[in-house]
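ugh ok fine here u go
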Amino acid sequence: MGNVSADGRTLWPSGRYDREVYVLSTDDGHPIRRIPVGDGPHGLCMWPQPGRYPLGHTGITR
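structure:
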């Protein structure tokens, strides 16, 4: 699960079983950062939510 940043430059998916959140470039897909967060990150929500269609669980807020 994850979401896109408000400026559309990064995708933030969660590594539910890897205890990490990843930051990926939406330009070319390269990994920018891996952030250790502890057990079970899941269903990240970004505010404000850009665009019309959110990704993953975060659609419950639309």
